[in-house]
Design goal:
Blueprint (H helix, E strand, L loop, with lengths): L1 H6 L11 H12 L8 H8 L1 H16 L1 H12 L5 H36 L20 E4 L6 E4 L2 H39 L10 H27 L1
Antiparallel strand pairs: 1-2
Length: 230
């Protein structure tokens, strides 16, 4: 074929579809309802890229059920007053942050499983890099690569995460939530007072913007400290 193409005998080459396989995919994939996608069959016929795309699409669609259900329940039980709606927005925002983090981490694992299964898993660059200078541990011979490496006992890391990282993160979230709730209460109070000048009605929003900026700078330092210690 390359020789004929070089001579100009063949101008284009297009593979024909296998109708038997397409009919099977039509029944098991396109026309199927509430059934898992035949990802292996899709990979065998269309290739790894197409199969990986539909694997991600199916995983994303399934993961969207959780915020949809939680948001519907939250909307149903939220009162019509401004304070309840503000609290619901904050709660839903926190839920979305947690959901997005779990979604990304789970997809990394799921995508690596598919890549390993279909023979396209590459060695991550992180595994070849030198450990960061702040890493603390004792030297040992790696049982996997047989090279010298720094080793930190997992139980010590888990202990620090449970007794320090988790309480600090929860305390930061609680502080942000209480500060935002206070700003919402202040805004509702300001709007209820008719005698105040118009410019003072923007005071709660200004205070909230300053708090968010200050907390952002503070939490960056806390995050760096937790990262170095963990």
């Amino acid at each position: 074929v390359p020789e004929l193409a070089a001579r100009g005998v063949i101008q284009q080459l297009f593979p024909l579809h296998e109708q038997r396989i397409l009919k099977r995919l039509m029944k098991s994939w396109v026309q199927a309802v509430c059934e898992a996608q035949p990802l292996d069959d899709i990979c065998d016929y269309f290739g790894v890229k197409i199969a990986m795309y539909f694997a991600w699409l199916g995983f994303y669609t399934s993961a969207m059920v959780y915020p949809a259900v939680f948001g519907s329940i939250l909307y149903t039980f939220t009162d019509s007053d401004q304070t309840s709606q503000d609290i619901s927005c904050v709660v839903f925002a926190i839920f979305n942050v947690i959901w997005a983090t779990l979604f990304l981490e789970e997809w990394k694992r799921r995508g690596a499983e598919f890549a390993y299964k279909w023979g396209t898993l590459d060695t991550p660059a992180e595994s070849l890099e030198e450990p960061r200078p702040q890493f603390r541990g004792m030297k040992r011979i790696s049982p996997v690569t047989s090279t010298e490496e720094f080793y930190y006992p997992p139980w010590k890391r888990l202990l620090f995460q449970s007794l320090v990282s988790l309480p600090v993160c929860l305390a930061c979230l609680a502080i942000v939530f209480l500060l935002m709730l206070g700003c919402f209460q202040l805004q509702e109070f300001v709007l209820s007072v008719q005698e105040l000048p118009r410019i003072l009605r923007f005071l709660p929003k200004i205070i909230l913007a300053v708090i968010v900026t200050a907390c952002d700078e503070l939490y960056k330092k806390v995050a760096l400290w937790l990262n170095d210690m963990g």
